[in-house]
Amino acid sequence: MRITKIEPQKKNPARRNIYLDGEFAVGVGAETLIRFGLRTGDEIGADKLKALEQTEELSSARNVALRFLSHRQRSRKEIQDKLREKEFGEEEINQALDSLERAGLVNDAAFARMFARDHLVLRPTGSILLKRKLLMLGVDKATIEEALADVMQNVDQKENAQQAGEKFLRKALAISPAQEKPRLRSKLTQFLVRRGFGWDAIESAVAALLADERLKELKQ
Questions:
Q1: Quick one: which of 124, 135, 175, 187 has the fewest CB in 10 Å?
Q2: Residue 4 — φ and ψ, nearest 5°?
């Protein structure tokens, strides 16, 4: 086969359409075109055409991943799912992800630490909930445990639970001030469980917030 024409694509001039023996064969980016050193008139065999297509597929997968990463840091699993959604092949997906990991752009350990810190800044959150969310994002358990141990070492979970519980109780009592203590205890405990706090932190927060004098303050 012989390359009979190389022309810019109308919708994306940065890309080129390659024609073989007068028929459209493949669209490639400028990077792939330069890498293979292709020019009009060159002969190209089936093996080289296949390598060209694979290289372009990998380049496209990497570019999609980079655009996805431009919004915020992502876990490897999030990017993998995005590329599968775009119907890239598994080999190209894995190669693209490995390339991004080598470049330091994909790092689940760094992602897990950033994710935990960001959530703690937004609102008091327990490590159980953080772990659950990170598992859902595809970060492996060992990486999560290490990241949370690092992030949570200077975080007082009992104090965080009390802060979250106080905000919850103030809202609940503003809506219905006459609620009985047993009902408040149940609702507060369930709320703190949903926020991912452990039982030690929950028991400490509930006891402090439902003490008679403290409860009077919260009702005011």
A1: 175
A2: -100, -20
